[in-house]
Amino acid sequence: MGKRTVEGRTDGDAQYRISRRHFLISTGALIAASACSTTPPQPATQNLPEGTVKLTAWTIGPDAPSYYRRDNLVAAGETLGKAVAAKSPKTSIQVDATFESGGQWGDYLQKFTLAAEAKTSPDIILAGHENFAPWVGPGYIVPLDDLIKKYQNEGDIKDVIPTLWTAMKLKGKTYGVPQDTEARPMYYRKDLLAKMGWSKDKIDGLPDAVKKGEFAWPDFVATAKEAISKGIVGPGMGWYSRPSKGADIYMFYYQNGGETQDSATAKLVIVKDALQKHFQVHADAVVNDKIMTKTIYGMDAGKEWHPTVTDGKVLFYNAGTWTWKDWQATYKVAEQALWENVGFMLIPAAQRGGKPVTVSHPLAYAVTSNAKDQDLAFRLIANATTPELNSKHSVTSAHLAVLTTQKDDPTYKQDKFLLATQYMLDYTKFIPNHAKFGVYDDVLYRFLGAVEQGQFTPAQAVDSAVKELQGQLGDELIVR
């Protein structure tokens, strides 16, 4: 296949120049059915149809650098085409994959739901692991356990990091193949800590101090307050949390012993004491200690949040590992400037001696019930799951490895940032896979906002949130 141009970028270009504007690119790859001199490992036996089999896939960033979510499927089509040709010379594979950049997750998920109901959905859908739960009941996607077993030697499926399979399961069945994962660090400005009088050794040692539980949340708050009192940062700029609903929010619930899902029953869980402490963290930050601005809730990420943190005006701010690349690609921050001025660590433990935390939100490929050939759709995913292809995505978009074998991949090994953050997966948690998690998420985030705006005390917010959730979720909620 020749080079394909994508918004001014060819596959051979080292420089990424893709626009952040919302766009949809449909890429077709017709794979010749003739056998080649290098025959890939033979897969399990499959009755192959004659003619061209068109496999369609939808993927999304929404961060622009994540385009390999699409490109890797297209590349995998070539490998699959060769394997198919070896078995059935009259069969060819066509891959038509799309990528949405800069759009909204809600719109993307709604588009798939409508397509699934109309039976016009693609063969493969990429989404967050928790997005699969609402699609299982109506049968929009299919369980993959039998296909994983049947094609375990195709691609590098067998080398997926074991804990990531846990995030793919719902009631014992597997519905996705991990495409990437990440961590959500607490970033900090090295230059601002230096202005506060911190030595270089102390600044560089901060991630390790957090990992050991020596620098805990009370130390974090005290440092942020000191930065404000000394005029190093402005009022409310000691810490910026995520400004919108998302998995990051739960780090501070987990930090305080929270649970979101019962392992035995798969029901949603609220731990009232942990929830109150989670709300208290934010009440203190905004209302009492004033290390975070009241306007954080609902702040526009693109127009205000990112420009403010990339200008070096905030001491601490939590975001995803992928943001490291997005700051470079979208906000034009030089990588060297990031390394010189920005550090990253886990979310500090609630108290000294405790365990720090982060949250991962693996994205995954699923096979839809509308797939014309579910075996071939799965095999395409399997062939896209290799150290070479996954590492291209990882280094381009700052997502962590999903395969144990990626640690030895030359591309992955050359990425300083990924190597420096991979350990965070040892401390990670996942949001739950439950069809009604959206309700749970909406309610808790709304009451978090009420706490930050001073409309509710943490205790009042817990009581009201639990009552509302019990009314909406009924027996699907366990309160502890």
* Domains (count): 2
Report the β-strand fraction as a percent range.
Answer: 5-15%
Global outline: globular
Strand order of the largest sheet: 1-3-2-4-14-7
CATH superfamily of the largest domain: Periplasmic binding protein-like II
Structural class by SSE content: alpha/beta
Q: Please state the second-level CATH architecture of the largest domain.
A: 3-Layer(aba) Sandwich
Q: Residue share in helices?
A: 25-40%
Q: Specify the biggest β-sheet.
A: 6 strands, mixed
Structure write-up:
- By secondary structure, this protein is of the alpha/beta class.
- It has two domains: 23-182 and 361-429, Periplasmic binding protein-like II (D-Maltodextrin-Binding Protein, domain 2), CATH 3.40.190; 186-359 and 436-479, Periplasmic binding protein-like II (D-Maltodextrin-Binding Protein, domain 2).
- The chain has 20 helices and 16 strands.
- It has helices spanning 68-87, 105-117, 133-136, 145-150, 162-167, 190-195, 200-204, 206-211, 217-229, 251-254, 272-288, 301-310, 323-329, 335-341, 374-383, 387-397, 410-413, 416-421, 437-452, 458-473; strands spanning 23-31, 51-60, 91-101, 124-128, 169-170, 173-174, 177-180, 186-189, 239-240, 268-270, 316-318, 342-345, 358-359, 363-367, 428-429, 477-479.
- Strands 1-3-2-4-14-7 form a six-stranded mixed sheet, sandwiched between helices. Strands 9-11-8-12 form a four-stranded mixed sheet.
- Mean pLDDT is 90; it is low at 1-43.
